[in-house]
Amino acid sequence: MSPVLSVRNLSKNFGGIKAVQDVNFDVAKGEFLALIGPNGAGKTTCFNMLNGYLKPNSGGSVQLNGKELLGTPPRKIWRMGVGRTFQITETFLSMTVLENIQMALISHHRRVFDMFSRATRLYVDEAMALLDLVSMSEHAERACSELAYGDLKRLELAIALAHEPALLLMDEPTAGMAPSERIALMALTADIVQREGVSVVFTEHDMDVVFAHSHRILVLNRGELIAEGTGDEIRANPTVQEVYLGGGTLFEDKKEAANA
Amino acid sequence: MGFYFAQLLTGLANASSLFLIASGLSIIFGVTRIVNFAHGSFYMVGAYLAYTIVTALNGGIFGFWFSIIAAAAIVGVIGLLIEMTILRRIYRAPELFQLVATFGVVLIFQDATLAIWGAEDLLGPRAPGLDRAVRIMGEPIPEYDLALIAIGPAVLAGIWLLFHKTRWGVLVRAATEDREMVGALGVNQAWLFSAAFVLGAFLAGLGGALQIPREAVSLQMDLSIIGEAFVVVVIGGMGSVSGAFVAAVLISVLNAFAILIFPQISIVLPFIVMAVVLILRPYGLFGKPGSEHVGTEEPEQPLKLMSQKSTMVLLAAVMVLAFSPAVTADFTSILLVDVMVATLFAVSLHFMMGIGGMVSFGHAAYFGVGAYAAAMMVKFLGFGMLPAMLLAPFFAAAAALFFGWFCVRLSGVYLAMLTMAAAQILWGVTFQWQAFTGGDDGILGVWPAEWASSDKVYFYIAFVLCLGGIWFLRRVAHSPFGYTLRGIRDSQTRAEAIGVDTKFHQWMGFVVAGSLAGLAGVVFAFSKGSVFPDTLGIAQSIDGLIMVLLGGIHALAGPIFGAVAFVMIEDWVTRLDYWRFIFGGIILVVVLLAPDGIAGGVNRLIRAILPNQKGGAA
Amino acid sequence: MLEVANLNARYGRAQILNGVSLSLGQNEVVAVLGRNGAGKSTTMKSIMGMVRQKTGQITYEGQSILGKPSHAICRAGVGYVPEERRIFGELTVEENLEVGRRDKRDDAPEWTLEHLFELFPNLSERRKNLGKQLSGGEQQMLTIARTLMGNPKMVLLDEPSEGIAPVIVEQMANVIAELKREGLSVLISEQNLHFARLVSDRAYIIEKGSVCYDGTFGHLDQNPEISNKYLAV
Known about the structure:
Low-confidence stretches of chain A: 247-260
Transmembrane segments (chain B): 6-29, 41-58, 64-82, 144-163, 190-210, 230-251, 257-280, 311-328, 388-408, 415-437, 457-473, 507-526, 546-569, 581-602
Structural class of chain A: alpha/beta
Protein name (chain B): High-affinity branched-chain amino acid transport system permease protein LivH
Mean pLDDT of chain C: 88
Distance between the termini of chain C: 31 Å
CATH superfamily of the largest domain in chain A: P-loop containing nucleotide triphosphate hydrolases
Number of strands of chain A: 10
Order of helices and strands of chain C: EEEHEEHEHHHHEHEHEEHH
Number of helices of chain C: 10
Shape of chain C: globular
Number of domains of chain A: 2
Structural class of chain C: alpha/beta
Order of helices and strands of chain A: EEEHEEHEHHHEHEHEEHHH
Distance between the termini of chain A: 38 Å
Largest sheet of chain C: 6 strands, mixed
CATH superfamily of chain C: P-loop containing nucleotide triphosphate hydrolases
Oligomer: heterotrimer
Radius of gyration of chain C: 17 Å
Membrane topology (chain B): Multi-pass membrane protein
Strand content of chain A: 15-25%
Number of strands of chain C: 10
Helix content of chain A: 25-40%
Radius of gyration of chain A: 19 Å
CATH architecture of the largest domain in chain A: 3-Layer(aba) Sandwich
Low-confidence stretches of chain C: none
GO molecular function (chain B): branched-chain amino acid transmembrane transporter activity
CATH architecture of chain C: 3-Layer(aba) Sandwich
Strand order of the largest sheet of chain A: 6-7-8-3-9-10
Subcellular location (chain B): Cell membrane
CATH class of chain C: Alpha Beta
Strand content of chain C: 25-35%
CATH topology of chain C: Rossmann fold
Helix content of chain C: 25-40%
């Protein structure tokens, strides 16, 4: 089966610094792929090139179901079937939870220039169904600004799924959440992904989350892909241990910063 | 060759005063983040004071320069009083409030100056010892110009030393970056702000005082300089003093040469330069995107459709309005037309600011273009009233399409400044292009068609057009288009990530708001029978801002309340002597006492008077 | 030294703190632990007078400082080191320190430029550089040095180990030890349990705007379920 996403020779220089060098990988349909590595390893740069916020060096290629993504602005990449969530949630705070989803649907159905319909009456059922998917339907009428952080994360997930994407890009989906919440959110994501047949690429610092949910892991260091494999393979990989996972010493969390 | 060099020197001499006022404005903005409209008033008062002191002292070289400094120092003290009584209370308010409050100060100053010095222009004496001209390369150059050319860089050097070699200066620069942090390090911000404000006012006063040997002191000095001073600050980068210097020189020298080729250009040139600079460098030549550490603003609540009760109240009000010509006198109908025009104008401005998140300091541009387009179609093309009414808003739309394209590339206070620049360019063209627009004399005789000439019939035309426009904008606010605009305002990142072309959408929002402002202008033109450049002026734009602010920016119905209140107050006040003074006072009272608009203010008043009401009712 | 009782704080409609109570004794180093968004920084900012909407009691040396402006709180001897460092990028290192300088107080140790440059040798080399030219670690040192220039009696350190390399984190631990040696009281907010354990005497854990643990690190170590539940380890 041909991959959903195929990344070839992706590189990015900032000034003279090679932030990302010649990265290649594929994502299969329904695959849950984690991108890990120390701070400054190029995860975010990679991500921003996939979603169109950064322009890579010439020569590379990123194809979604055979269509080239590079050089396309973020909004068009979204239209081609890539949903995304942000490290720090981005939602429309002056709207209700339901309206946030409706906005995504309105855009998906290309009705943002409609000046006469009542926005709140459009796609209510579809929006409720999406909220159901993330178990948020009882919050539908609440103002988005009143939500707890964990709920905002779930809302973002529902927004990202509104246009039935083929691929979901999640940047540090569990940042700022308690461990119990993290597992719950990722379990929910994994469940939805499996049912809907979406592929996911996510970056993550919490190794529990990574090992529990990813099908495959890519490890970046200094802009290069240094390892690739299942959780067990990555855990056993001596290079990865050295640059990233560490041996559980005192400043375990900070090891990653050393290489930044 | 000598002629061009002389032209260059004239440009540099002009740059000095412009730099003085602009540097003061920039320092005040840098530290307090206030866009101080009253800065032109400081400049004007500086000139008047210098005139009075110089003529009273009549004391030769020493007396002259002492008077200049004394005038500037008095302006500094006036600045201190204003800062302590007014601005200190609104540092945390949105920029719109601050702008409107300082405009209230402008009005008060205008009438105070009129009361003290009278309406006549005053001609000051020449500077003793510098009252001749020297020949440079065969051209006569006034000695005083040479002195001014030296004063500009000298003041710049003085400010530089002050900012880099004194503890106070270091604190000011630190506060420009992050004033909250400066407070947490033990510096009393209140006094730092006051001191910066005094310095800024002193510099403006100095700029004005230095002008007395060169130009007559007049009541128009304030608003004629302020637009240019804003432009200089924005081009230089807000908060940057050296940027203000470079920009002042750039504008003045360009101007000195440009008028040789195209004499009419001087009014619009600064604004054109500013538009070009902002497109190339969105934060000005030396500016940086400010690291704002301001407390999180309270998120707006979701829009709700009106409850049945308020729909009934609104319908009743519209019905009363519809039947009012039957029972009231003609002048009431005329006043009600003014109210409806103002309301549509305010609603269109609110659509842009409240819904679209794009603060405009120059919304009058589209109002004026609508009015002028209609007037010119009637006068020059022989159009009838109805075709002119239908077509003119498209011209406003075209203007909004053109200027909006530039404006939506920026955000925040820079966007606001660019909208003002756009309005000033249009105003300048209208003012200068005598043959086409009638210039200062305006276009007269723009009357409605025969059948619509009675005040009552015209009332119904205005009723249909204005209420139709308001209804349309409300409808759009609740539509996917309006929701998308609000979404972009809330989070551009999220909007982009759900496939919205944010810049394009804002651009279209700008055009919608501009077109409806144009429609208001059209109705206005036929109701007055004439149009003047004022319809595109700063004052008209500010009126719109005051209406939106009076009503409260967070409510959809806010601008309606605001416009009605504004026209009523204006109609009453303008019959009085010194109405600007009173009106300025009213503005200040509203801004200081009811920062959440009329609706919010009334609410709080009720709670204050009847503290137990809420509990008692339960 | 510092007593916070039943502190509530909000930004707009969002209630961030829900009855936080904690205390800091003379010459004590206490850690406030919790994950992102739990309310650690808001607690710090509330003590420093940088949050406007708040209720409860904040007593410093027996005097209420609730509602006082932050410059007055600073002048009373409270130093604040913000989470995002917030150094002045357009000012030189020396000018940054100048902004923080306050007169010597009798009841607190005096920090001179020389002493601070001894403690932070990197800064000494870069004293003429602009703040924005410094690396993240150097900025972190500058922000602490800047606060110490105010000769405080008590220091609020908001996430000192956030986003800096381990070498610098170790240096940071030394600095905190030095502060304690000099007789200062220090309140640290941290996400990194290891670092907090290394430098502080006891700990609070904040979750959803309330204190949910108050005790020693020893007790915390014996009951790993607490840290598992509330902390990001």
